[in-house]
Design goal:
Aminopeptidase, 398 residues, 5-stranded mixed sheet, 3-stranded mixed sheet, alpha+beta
Length: 398
């Protein structure tokens, strides 16, 4: 079967539309838009980094005008979404709950090294406490380390037991107002009408394929495999071939791009207009998760540098990609000083391209919204590689 051929611009539009970045309010406005966005994506990655507002909130705020932080918590409290660790930690629609079951089963069966008797007994004791006492946090358990903590990931045994129970599906988590995990029994959090039937291997593979292509627009097997990576010997490749034969998936080629075979859903919309609005994005936004895709489709060489040693950083600790239309125009290393109510932009680095006055105006508007979203009143710019653009932007705040 011959592939459908797209120009790079056409491919970018398909990808941006699938990610909810073709225009603001693509999923509507208000609290219901948050659910619609999560339901479309199937998975919204969360992150604890608080240099600026946390990643999951930024994903919402970049797409939903007037987004409020409590809208996400309300959906969780209503049992319409839940948190789990699939490819990464994130929020999923409760209607997809059954598709988290193979991942939980895989965590339980494939743990290496196998649990010791002491670890198994500790998990039973921890689960028993939650059953008897109700929702608990790590702080409700004694610090049972045998030796002093050696660092950030040196969890106490009680914490490890809670996390294992969570990954196995014997416990679920919610969050308190300080973003700390609260561990509870699934029966207390899952609505009664939720489908709890374990999917077959074929069902799980097709779910992964549909979800991945639905949110990425155009993707390779590599991205689909990433989403299913916690489940060993999954059938993603096999079911993909079946879906191509059955006409549910089509092969794709992009002009000027040499890559692994690409695919898209047959019913994917391809007649897409891009608004030209500016989006300030989280490094953990779905559009930014796969760096090579940014290079291949958008000619944007991006890396989040909080994981890079200080001496090797080029742009800053937590630089945020800035998108206008179908072009990444800049990256912004920013930090919210919440006490002083100031958003400090340590570095606003522009790509090697010429911005129009309209694009500058769009960026100014996005920055104003971003300042308010981060509970700040002012913005201070420390550095930029384009002083003329920075001057225009600074004037826009006067």
């Amino acid at each position: 079967m011959e592939p459908i051929i797209f120009s790079k611009s056409q491919a970018r539009k398909i990808i941006l539309h699938a990610a909810g970045l073709a225009r603001k309010a693509q999923f509507g406005t208000g609290p219901e838009a948050v659910y619609q966005l999560i339901d479309h994506m199937g998975f919204v990655q969360l992150d604890t980094n608080y240099v600026v507002e946390r990643a999951h909130h930024q994903v919402m705020a970049s797409r939903i005008p007037d987004y409020q932080l409590n809208w996400l918590w309300d959906l969780s409290a209503e049992g319409r979404i839940f948190e789990f660790f699939t490819s990464d930690a994130g929020y999923m629609p409760m209607t997809d709950f059954r598709f988290s079951l193979p991942v939980k089963e895989s965590f339980s069966k494939n743990r290496k090294p196998p649990l010791t008797n002491a670890e198994t007994q500790l998990m039973k004791q921890v689960l028993d406490r939650v059953e008897r006492e109700g929702p608990l946090m790590v702080g409700d358990f004694e610090d049972d380390r045998l030796e002093a903590s050696s660092g950030w990931w040196d969890w106490r045994p009680g914490k490890v037991a809670l996390e294992r129970l969570y990954l196995d599906g014997k416990l679920m988590v919610t969050r308190n107002n300080k973003f700390h995990k609260v561990y509870d029994l699934p029966g207390n959090l899952i609505p009664e009408d939720t489908d709890l039937k374990m999917p077959t291997a074929e069902e799980f593979a097709r779910y992964v394929i549909q979800r991945t292509l639905g949110v990425l627009g155009i993707a390779s097997v590599k991205e689909m495999a990433w989403r299913a990576r916690r489940v060993k010997n999954n059938l993603v490749k096999k079911e993909l071939e079946k879906m191509i034969t059955e006409g549910e998936v089509k092969t794709v080629a992009v002009e000027g791009l040499k890559s692994a075979p690409l695919y898209m859903l047959t019913d994917q919309d391809t007649a897409i207009e891009i608004s030209g609005e500016a989006f300030i994005l989280s490094p953990f936004d779905i559009i930014n998760v796969f760096r090579y895709r940014l290079k291949d489709f958008f000619d944007f060489d991006y890396q989040i540098e909080c994981f890079v040693p200080l001496a090797k950083r080029k742009y800053g600790y937590f630089s945020l990609p800035i998108l206008i239309g179908e072009t990444f125009i800049a990256r912004m290393d920013a930090k919210a000083d919440r006490k002083q109510k100031v958003l400090v932009v340590h570095n606003l680095h522009f790509e090697d391209l010429e911005l129009t006055e309209t694009m500058i105006d769009e960026l100014i508007e996005a920055l104003k919204v971003f300042v308010q979203f981060n509970q700040c009143r002012e913005i201070v710019f420390k550095k930029s590689n384009q002083q003329a653009y920075l001057k225009s932007i600074s004037n826009g705040f006067r």
